[in-house]
Amino acid sequence: MQTLSPFKSFAKASKEQHINKDGKAVVYTRVSTKEQAENNASLETQKKYCIEFAKKKKIEIIEFFGGTYESAKSDERKEFSKMLSFVKRKKDISYIIVYSYDRFSRTGANGAYISEQLKKQGIVTLSATQEVDAMTAAGSFQQNLYYLFSQFDNELRRDKSVSGMREKLRKGYWIGSIPFGYTNLNPGKGKEQQIVINEEGKLLKYAFLWKANENITHIEIAKRLERKGLKISYKKLSDYFRNPFYCGLVVSSHIPGEVVEGKHEALISKEIFLKIHQLLNKTGYGEKKNMDDENLPLKRFMKSTVCGTAYTGYLVKKKGLYYYKNNRIGSKENRNAKIIHQQFLDLLENYALSDEKYLAPLKEVMYYSFKRAHEAHIQETMAQQNELLEISTKLERLEERYVFEEISQSQYEKFRQRLGAEKLEIEEKLHSSGFNLSNLEKALDLGLNYAKNLPELWQSGNLDTKRSLQRMVFPEGILYDFKNSVFRTPYVNSIFSCIGELSKEMGKNKNGTSQNFEDLSRSVLGAGIEPARSQ
Fold first, then answer.
1. Domain that holds residue 518
2. pTM of the predicted protein model
3. How confident is the model over 143-155, as pLDDT tens digits?
4. Alpha helices by DSSP H, 242-300
């Protein structure tokens, strides 16, 4: 009979998992909480049992892992991952010894999967207190059951914990970290909370009042708070303003759809909170921007001289060109945007400084002329500003008394409304006058600085820059005479109208002819003090 020895090389290798029973082991111990780790009793007990188990099985331990607190609800644990990385690198590791399988993992099927993958590499997970033969089908099944029971136990604990949290929340007690501005005077697990407003919270209260009553920006609120001694990022204010905890309420994802009266002190009233919420959720701020707007910055800013209808625009895709158009029925007023933009740049040239050497004398003449023309009005404005400062001081004092609970909310609202009405009346007078001497020099500097290269700034700027410059020079927009292909300017900012007039006057004298200071001032008075109308 022919021997089969020459065919042995064709025999298939075994698919059964091979474990080197003479291999070495590592020990992994853990507890779930920091308190258990600090007590150390459980960790020492686990280690002791694992060492005794290894001696009994005559297995050599070469490394210990864990020895700290790590939740086994997830297998993304630092020490656990470190241990897995170690055993995969070492070729002589055959065992991972744990006190019980729930110390290895409480993730159920995922724990069983990790054990199975380790077995494929010749590494078996052994429990010192739940001895099974994981290399047999029955033993592997029993091991997996331990993992599943651990997960089931986790779920039961979680349900019990969540039920307890829900019960606390529905009674008005907060769970989790205490919001900024509050302190828990009775901390500790299981203790009844006593959450009160701290010193930071008293200052934070100003932020809510300023937002509700003045609707100022978050950046300005942060600056004001810093001046009072509270430094916080303006970016956090939106979260604070949207958190109903500050008006005495408790909401949580653990009790979805429910709002509960909290046991803690309310920082502000529910009315103030709702008022701020409405302000934060207002729509319509600014205009929507798209690529059409980027290429058509004069859209809606430019109107027809015939009917006052605003020009819109469109793109001719085949040509890749943008056009402005008037939507008046039958108007047929369509014009290439490039032509319109060049005409607008030519218009801006009229309000640009022809020579920078005119900058200083222009500013001096304009400042002098503005003051002379508004001498009586200046005195009235100064009196109104002093009155406004006095009311602001009273409001600030009122806020302080309310924050520090020297007066009730009803008293605060009563006097705030009265003082607020007085403040609003004065502010409207100041605004309607359109004149503020304290800002005159800044306005002149800004206007003259822009005037040095006005067309270039508009041409090179982004959409926001273009629109800002347009509104600055022509606050009421511009009119377009389509038939004659020219712009009309119903109103020009007085500073720029003065620049236009004075540049012409001073340009006449560039040959060296002197010009009387009073004559220049009269040019300003004629062009700038009263609105410059259509040209």
1. 356-374+435-529
2. 0.41
3. 767 666 655 555 5
4. 270-280, 291-295
